[in-house]
Amino acid sequence: MASAPDSPELAQAALAIVAATTDMVGTATPDGRVRLLNRAGRALLGLEEEGSLGEELISSYHPAWAWELIREEAIPTAIRDGSWSGETAILSRGGEEIPVWQLILAHRGESGEVAFISTVARDLRPRKDAELRLRERIKELRTLYAVARITAGWDRPLEARLQELVEALPSGWLHPEHTEAEIRLGRTLCRTPGHQGFQEVLEVPVRNGAEVVGSVRVGVAPHAPRLPGVDTPFLPEERELLEAVAGSIGKALEREALQESLVQAQKIQTIGRLAGGTAHDFNNLLSGILGYTELLKTAVSEDEPRDTQVEYLSTIERAALDGAALIRKIQQYIRQEQQTKFEPLEVPSLIHECVSLTRPYWFNEPRRQGISIDMDLHLEDVPGIMGNGTELREVFINLILNAVQAMPRGGTIRFETER
Predict the structure, then answer these.
(1) What is the DSSP string of 63-80?
(2) What b-and-e string marks burial along 321-351, b requiring 16 or more CB atoms within 10 Å of the CB?
(3) What is the DSSP pairing of strand 373-379 with strand 411-417?
(4) Is 258 left (phi over 0), alpha (psi -120 to 50) or beta?
(5) How many CB atoms lie within 10 A of CB 276?
(6) φ and ψ of 302, to 5 deg
(7) 1 pLDDT band (50/70/90 cuts)?
(8) For the residues of 323-384, what is the DSSP string, one character each?
(9) Own/partner long-range contacts of 250-258 (Cβ < 8 Å, ≥24 apart)
(10) Which residues does residue 185 pair with via DSSP β-bridges, in sequence order?
(11) Which of 37, 45, 60, 63 could bridge to 26 as Cys pair (CB 3.0-4.6 Å)?
């Protein structure tokens, strides 16, 4: 139970402390009439620094919910136990509800009855503002982590990643339930479900290098709550977040363009390595076509039997068909379009196809150099798979070409499948 200082000196010291403290300090009669309010309390409430408090009641300094808490719980507890503390709020003359941590003390006189009630209240706005900004920063970091994870998903179509990204953005804002987002890249437009086109928006361009290729927009509903004293619905940190998101998208686009260039360069290199052996075989096919064409012209002029002429024509036809098949295989490999959907594939058939396509490189060319390289295939029937045929062919072809390079003295390349 609190008691008054027992000497004039202590009383003067207590009054000096009350006057100098930055916390609100006040006293009131048991029936709730305010009798003293220090300078910090008057400033917090928006009252004049000096002047009579008149017949002000405690209830006039609190919003209704806080006064109910003080009346029904805080004061009775202080009278029973000597003190009570907890979070409440005061109401300034300008109508602002200010959160405070409040201590309430009951002071008894010589008769044992409550003589007056005092309170000390500390403004919680700085702490709550710091807590809010910390929470928002954590949300922003989580959003940036999600952005990094989504933009790194090379195995998914760009539009699918952008849609997941745009749906993740509102969670990084102060009021996610009142926030919508939109990402535009070229002709691709992705929006959060139920997009309404709010008027209050924040927009940041997306750049691929120096070129502006799109934008990221976030809109907030007009009825969304705002922070006290803030005119805009967006925090400064939220603009920084949006700029970071746009930057992450731009960097992802640059990385994908670089990755695509690297893949194409590797493919061109592989084609070049294939071309050496393929050109020799194709020249052989053309030589056969030209040679038998000359024989056929001679046969016609010398009235050779019809069966001989048909045989010459059949040989020309086989050579032409073999050449066309060879060209088709190369075209299938070097085609530029990417398959974004998986398809049913038979692995043994893919391996046979790649072995056939690379035969000039692992068989014909080494033989001309006196090097023997054999292909050992043990391909059991295995269940089909879903995959990208173009990419798997590229894998098998590169395996064969690299294996040939690793065997300058010859050897055996072995492929095996089993259940």
Answers:
(1) -HHHHHHIIIIIHHHHHH
(2) ebbeebeebbeebeeeeeeeeeeeeebbebb
(3) parallel
(4) alpha
(5) 12
(6) -100, 15
(7) very low
(8) HHHHHHHHHHHH------S-EEE-HHHHHHHHHHHTHIIIIIHHHHTT--EEEEEEE-----
(9) 250/206, 250/207, 250/208, 250/209, 250/213, 251/151, 252/151, 252/152, 253/185, 253/206, 253/208, 253/213, 254/208, 254/209, 256/154, 256/158, 257/208
(10) 188, 214
(11) 37
Q: In this predicted model, which residue has the larger pLDDT, 377 or 276?
A: 377
Q: Which one has a higher pLDDT value, 318 or 251?
A: 251
In degrees, to the nearest 5, what angle opens at C-alpha 161 toward C-alphas 160 and 162? Answer: 90
pLDDT band, very low/low/confident/very high, at 263 (cuts 50, 70, 90):
low
Residue 118: half-sphere exposure toward Cβ, Cα within 13 Å: 17
Residue 100 pLDDT grade (very low, low, confident, very high; cuts 50, 70, 90): very high
Rounded CA gap, 230 and 125, in Å?
Answer: 14
Distance in angstroms (rounded) separating the CA atoms of residues 318 and 316: 6
What are the backbone angles phi and psi of residue 285, rounded to the nearest 5°? Answer: -60, -45
| pLDDT (0 to 100) of residue 229 | 64
pLDDT at 13: 78
Query: What's the chain's length in residues?
Result: 419
- Grouping H, G, I as helix, E, B as strand and the rest as coil, residue 106 is strand
Report yes or no on whether pTM surpasses 0.70.
no
Q: Which residue has the tokens 């084609």?
A: 271
Could you give the angle at which helices 125-151 and 236-301 cross, rounded to 10 degrees? Answer: 0
